[in-house]
Amino acid sequence: MKTLKIAIQKSGRLNEKSVDILSKCGLSFENYKSSLISPVQNFPLEILFLRDDDIPEYVQDGIADLGIVGENVIEETGADVTYLHRLGFGKCTLKIAVPNHSEINSLNDLEGKSIATSYPNILKKFLNKNQVQADVRVISGSVEISTNLGLSDAICDIVSTGGTLKSNGLKPFADVLSSEAILIAKNGIADENEQVQELLLRLRSVLRAKE
Ligand code: PRT
Ligand code: ZN
């Protein structure tokens, strides 16, 4: 039986819950310490610990057979992969926000304005769909301070509690994408594969028990 590989986040917001859900599926393995690969002792599977941004493409290209990653990252990379199951954690929303006293209050008001984001592909698609022409500025981090610095009129970033927006004097007004962690697979491997089907069976019962 071929040993499958599943890619999960090495460290960050999804690491602990990814490890937790795989453990609850009865898989026994070491969490990342110094190695990037951890063999599962009681199932033909290896865990790869990666930056989340790399996971969709690694799965698309078959370097990993499966992966756990946020929908926002899958959509942004545009990777062509199969969605196997929503996992119910890592929930967040990609939102457009503006300074509290901004005169921008609707999508139409964004016409001709600048928006800073780390999600240019998703944002451009959204603006096109809504027929708004705006200047998308790509920033890799600390997007929330870009309006305060005069770098942009608006931002588009991930929000969960809304605390970060608030503490930077920003208010959200449009939801671009709601996201959660997803179990993905390389296209075409899941249907016929006994190990994947066994994992899905266990996963469904773990998720059902959580409801
Ligand atoms: O190192 P690596 O590249 O793997 O990780 P990363 O730093 O790129 O990602 P990480 O660990 O921060 O987030 C991983 C995934 O968690 C994201 O891709 C989302 O799918 C999901 N997620 C859920 C979040 C949040 N909630 C979240 N709140 N990702 C980021 N945030 C950030 C957001 O960018 C903003 O700065 O938290 C801030 C807002 O939070 P609130 O609670 O103040 O609204
Ligand atoms: Zn990342």
From TrEMBL:
GO terms of molecular function: ATP binding; ATP phosphoribosyltransferase activity; magnesium ion binding
Function statement: Catalyzes the condensation of ATP and 5-phosphoribose 1-diphosphate to form N'-(5'-phosphoribosyl)-ATP (PR-ATP). Has a crucial role in the pathway because the rate of histidine biosynthesis seems to be controlled primarily by regulation of HisG enzymatic activity.
Coiled coil: none
Superkingdom, natural source: Bacteria
Name recorded for this polypeptide: ATP phosphoribosyltransferase
Keywords from the UniProt entry: Amino-acid biosynthesis, ATP-binding, Cytoplasm, Glycosyltransferase, Histidine biosynthesis, Magnesium, Metal-binding, Nucleotide-binding, Transferase
Organism, as annotated: Anseongella ginsenosidimutans
Name of the top EC class for this enzyme: transferase
